[in-house]
Design brief:
The protein is 68% helix and 2% strand. It has twelve helices and two strands, in the order ααββαααααααααα. It has helices at 3-12, 14-30, 42-55, 66-75, 78-81, 86-93, 99-111, 120-123, 126-133, 138-154, 159-179, 192-203, and strands spanning 34-35, 39-40. Helix 3 (42-55) packs antiparallel against helix 4 (66-75). The chain is globular, with a radius of gyration of 16 Å. The protein starts with a helix and ends with a helix.
Length: 204
């Protein structure tokens, strides 16, 4: 799929993607989840989806994968934070997709769901990263999630964001290694321009 074809597909499916966005926003509002204790959680979901929109052409294989990819961007925290199960997400995805697309989207969401753990390291352990590396589009989706968090933390000055900025900067080399798949299939790849953007933000 070319870059032009990818952006044409985004425009073609814009109405469905907007419906998915509104549904995801409403889900996180329903559980009263906030981002940085300030913003509606949809603020973060939009940032992640923007990363997928901007760089998804580098990894997307065909038009049939575009809507599942954007669905996963908007729903990536739904199991972890919004009390959804795998089957809940699958049922929701089927509102806009066929069986195969819905399963693909749900697998991405599942791959980005942290493990149970008391600490950050336990929640994002080797099993977690293995699941990301083995799921089509999950590596780039996780990178979009990290880009969103780094962009926000590096542009704000409260104590929590200053701390997370340092955490993200320290973690970056290990993080990139952990999510980088060795498969030749471009659906598992990480866009180099996206990595460069993250590195520029971290160095700023």
């Amino acid at each position: 799929m070319t870059e032009k074809e990818y952006y044409e597909s985004l425009r073609k499916h814009a109405e469905v993607i907007d419906q998915i966005r509104e549904s995801a926003h409403a889900l996180h509002e329903h559980v009263n989840q906030r981002y940085d204790k300030i913003h509606p959680y949809g603020f973060h979901l939009d940032m992640v989806a923007d990363g997928v929109r901007k760089y998804g052409y580098a990894v997307c294989d065909n038009e049939a994968d575009v809507v599942p990819f954007l669905f996963a961007a908007f729903y990536h925290d739904s199991i972890e934070d919004a009390r959804q199960t795998y089957n809940d997400v699958m049922r929701t995805a089927k509102r806009w997709m066929d069986e195969d697309q819905a399963r693909q989207a749900t697998e991405m969401v599942y791959a980005l769901t942290n493990e149970k753990g008391r600490t950050r390291a336990e929640r994002a352990n080797d099993k977690y990263y293995q699941g990301i590396r083995e799921t089509p589009y999950a590596p780039m989706l996780k990178l979009a999630d990290r880009l969103a968090n780094i962009s926000y933390s590096c542009s704000n000055t409260n104590e929590s964001n200053a701390h997370m900025k340092q955490v993200y900067q320290t973690e970056l080399p290990h993080f990139l290694t952990a999510i980088r798949s060795q498969r030749a299939d471009k659906r598992f790849s990480l866009p180099e321009e996206m990595i460069k953007e993250i590195e520029r933000i971290c160095q700023g």
